[in-house]
Amino acid sequence: MSKFTSDYIITMEDIVKEGDPILRQVVEENELPPSEEDKEELANMMQFLKNSQDPVLAKKYGLRAGVGLSANQIGLNKRMFVTYFNDEKGKCYEYTLINPKITSTSQTMIYLPQSEGCLSVDREIKGYVPRYERIKMKAYDVDGNELNLRFKGFPAIVMQHELDHLNGILFYDRINGDNPFKLPENVDIRSI
């Protein structure tokens, strides 16, 4: 039985840190439809993101703000993640995704000028993380319904970051090892 029940509050102590083997493994696909345990864990993960962005609750529980959280970041070997953030136009991206996979990508790429951050990485890492500018994803919701989604810009970056977690990849693995500010060549890539 999972400890992440509806009355549990995830704190930074629950976030698995870099160096833990679960962050480097490809996590297992979930059975569909999701179990009640899966649903409670996902609801708990979403509540963590909302709490982390609420200044009062973040201070009360000592939370770092996050926009996405993958199941293996709280030690669960399950192929699912949640996101919660607003884009620059104020559109809310509240997603609970199970067994997500990218079905197509743009040829154009983007990166965040300030690099990326991660709840599992407690240090600042400088460098450009190249990501596809637009992606299409297939996933399932908490009721087991198939979703076909499209993301571009910052939302596409968030989705790729979380999907990488499920494949055992951390954001800094994508930074050029010789020169962290070198971008891929022969690619249409820009900062957002």
Tell me the layout of helices and strands.
Layout: H1 36-53, H2 55-61, E1 68-70, E2 80-83, E3 95-105, E4 109-111, E5 131-132, E6 134-140, E7 146-152, H3 154-166, E8 189-191
Parallel strand pairs: 4-8
Antiparallel strand pairs: 1-2, 2-3, 3-6, 4-5, 6-7
Q: What global shape is seen?
A: globular
Instruction: Determine the number of helices (DSSP H or I, runs of at least 4 residues).
Output: 3
Main sheet attributes: strand count, strand direction, barrel closure = 5 strands, antiparallel
Percentage of residues in helical conformation: 10-25%
Overall tally of structural domains: 1
Number of strands: 8
Radius of gyration: 16 Å
Q: How do the SSEs run, as a string of H and E? A: HHEEEEEEEHE
Strand content: 15-25%
Could you explain the architecture of this structure?
By secondary structure, this protein is of the alpha+beta class. It has a single domain, classed as Peptide Deformylase, CATH 3.90.45. A five-stranded antiparallel β-sheet has the order 1-2-3-6-7. Strands 5-4-8 form a three-stranded mixed β-sheet, covered by helices on one side. A hairpin with a 5-residue loop joins strand 6 and strand 7. It starts with 35 loop residues before the first helix and ends with a strand.
Produce a short descriptive summary.
By secondary structure, the chain is α+β, with helices and mostly antiparallel strands. It is built from three helices and eight strands; from the N terminus they run H-H-E-E-E-E-E-E-E-H-E. The chain has one domain (12-191): Peptide Deformylase (Alpha-Beta Complex), CATH 3.90.45.
